[in-house]
Amino acid sequence: MAKGRKSNASTADSNIVASSQTNMTRRRDPMTPPPATGVTLGPKKIINAAPSLQNSKPGLYPNARLTIPRAIGIAGAKLEAACPGLFSGLLPALFSWGLTVGLIFGGCCSNVYTLEAIVKDEPDSGFLLTFTQFVVTALFTWPAHFSASHPPFYLKPRAVPLTRWIPNIVLFWVVNVLNNLAFRYRISVPIHIILRSGGSVTTMLVGFCWGNRYSRVRVISVALLTVGITLAAYSDAQSKGKTNPSLSDSPNSTASFVTGLLILLIAQILSAVMGLYTQKIYSQYGSHWLENLFYIHSLSLPLFLICLPFLPFLRLQVARLASSPSIFIFPSTPLPKAYLWKVSPFFFAPFHHLVPYIKLAVPITQIRIPSLLAILGANALTQYLCIRGVNMLGARTSALGVSIVLNIRKLISLLISIWLFGNQLPLGVLAGAGVVFGSGALYAWDGGSDRGRRMGRKKSKSY
């Protein structure tokens, strides 16, 4: 019996040694699958080496070199730690505001420049201008709303009901058609700017009828701004001699000019109503300005079919622009200033003193582009940039604030035009510029004080 117990003990000891060797083998080989005998291995331990790496010295790891992306990341982390919210709030906000201001003052100012270049040669092309601008803007905004999973129109679901956009669509179409149609009635671009500078006044008057109330400081700032932009535009028109002296030559001329004034007045009132209505939609459904931009342009295109009697006139406008002097571009051939001046004196006048020639290189033999059609394409593109910036601004501020910024932009357009064409800056333009910028600063100061008072009321209520 003792001998049997001893043999059993030796057998058990050998089994324990064998199982321990097997376990050691499994520990050495991490790719070995778990045993099928029902024995489960414990959870795999994860070693956190972050503390040791943080406390390590660079000299111990020669391969961990400080690269430019790593240095930028370290600097960004330190800035974020020192100024919380810098990258998550402040810089994106500054970039967004900078983009908005850049689109408005860059796109809109260049748009006025191309508009004047076309209207000076073809004043009856307002309807074609409106149609081209709507088509280009609709095409540029369509990809952001395309969705292959939503047939039959393949458009993403709207954040705002379509019925709420319909009044905005009709108002926007009518305002743009009227503004461009006014050029047929002896309305020059400076006079156009003068009359449209009353946008802040009409916005305030319509807003008052809408139920909005404005402080005395804002009323004074809007009145001063209107006086300043009117003075600057009128002085510019006087200095350039663009005021039409033949308005009083015949009753027909006077009647045509008065008709143009009435058209612009109606457009200003409708524009003020549209701005307040858009502000109401944004306050109810959120600031979906890109959706607004797409639908007011794309769904306005069928409205041009209403103007079927104007279609032959539209074809005539296209034919006139296509018959303008062409721009010939040859490979690596400089275009002299004299040739550009002959093609379009008004459009190329600002660049007459900037460069001795313009050198263009293309990989084909020859390109023939009618100059006014090329300017028309530039006008439509800059109009898209301008209206995109205006809608971005409308999603951030009130209708009156948008009108204030646009009036300042009109003055900048005049100043840039004067500088590019080499004209002397009249005293009236300088005075108007001072009044406009002063009134804009007054309006901004009153807006900041209003926000401060509202924040003070909220804090007092919370206590």
Automatic annotation (TrEMBL):
It comes from the Eukaryota. It is found in: Endomembrane system. Residues 1-42 are annotated as: Disordered. Pfam families: UAA (PF08449). InterPro entries: SCL35B1-4/HUT1 (IPR013657). One of its GO terms (molecular function) is UDP-N-acetylglucosamine transmembrane transporter activity. It is a multi-pass membrane protein. PANTHER family: NUCLEOTIDE SUGAR TRANSPORTER SLC35B4, SOLUTE CARRIER FAMILY 35 MEMBER B. This is Udp-n-acetylglucosamine transporter yea4.
